[in-house]
UniProtKB/TrEMBL annotation:
Residues 1-17 form the signal peptide. The lineage of its organism: Bacteria, Pseudomonadati, Campylobacterota, Epsilonproteobacteria, Campylobacterales. SUPFAM superfamilies: Multiheme cytochromes (SSF48695). InterPro entries: Dihaem_cytochrome-c, Multihaem_cyt_sf. Pfam families: DHC. This is Diheme cytochrome c. Keywords: Signal.
Length: 173
């Protein structure tokens, strides 16, 4: 009997909670580590740790002297500090964040991409964008998340916050 009374209450409470955004984290966890921002966001956007799984970060941090054509080497103790932060917050640990889960699930077990832009989920989501909107000087490449996702620094990549330079809002249909 008790259960029958409590069930509708529970359903109502969880509908209310999700309307407030408590139950679902639709994006990825925002970057919190100041040292990470200092060391890893001087050349580009501070990619959230939840955009790649642990094995990707391990591989990327092992080869900083040859980092996408540049040298981003760190002192060993700094490398370790950043690696720990990345691993602790990687996509495979943060699967309660919808985008982290989707990215992680799109990577085959035998693959270790070191670029978010190389993951299947990312490629699928971006393949309809006209090439000249990507190569234009205001964007440059798909690695430049903030150029189109105005709230990327908050870990939010939702469609309503997309604004592509010289194009505007993204209409899916
Ligand atoms: C000296 C400049 C420099 C520094 C410092 C640097 N990077 Fe990069 N990184 C690049 C370049 C260049 C690319 C290629 C993409 C681009 O053109 O922005 C890149 C790409 C990446 C990508 C792939 C982005 C994609 O396309 O999906 C990740 C992830 C990344 N960097 C992580 C890091 C991390 C973590 C650190 C700190 C340990 C770091 N970077 C420090 C220059 C740098
Ligand atoms: C040229 C503009 C542009 C750039 C640069 C760009 N994106 Fe996007 N992104 C889009 C558009 C447009 C969509 C919507 C695709 C769709 O749902 O049809 C999208 C979708 C997404 C989604 C899925 C959101 C959803 O609600 O389905 C994620 C996650 C995402 N982008 C992450 C990134 C990350 C991370 C970067 C940088 C590494 C990036 N994007 C760079 C334009 C861009």
């Amino acid at each position: 009997m008790k259960k029958l009374i409590l069930l509708p209450l529970f359903v109502a409470a969880s509908v209310y909670a999700s309307s407030l955004g408590f139950n679902e984290n639709r994006g990825v966890a925002p970057v919190t580590d100041k040292f990470y921002i200092k060391e890893c966001a001087s050349c580009h956007f501070a990619y959230q740790p939840g955009l790649l799984p642990e094995r990707s970060w391990v591989k990327l941090m092992k080869n900083l002297e040859n980092h996408f054509g540049t040298d981003a080497t760190l002192e060993p103790q700094d490398n370790k500090k950043i690696l720990n932060y990345l691993v602790d917050n990687s996509a495979d640990k943060f699967t309660n964040y919808k985008r982290s889960a989707k990215i992680n699930n799109s990577i085959g077990g035998d693959e270790t991409p070191i670029a978010v832009t190389d993951t299947r989920y990312f490629i699928k989501k971006h393949r309809e964008i006209r090439q000249n909107l990507i190569t234009q000087k205001e964007v440059g490449s798909l690695s430049n998340c903030m150029a189109c996702h105005t709230t990327a620094d908050k870990g939010s990549y939702s469609e309503r916050d997309i604004n592509i330079p010289n194009y505007g809002k993204w209409e899916n249909d």
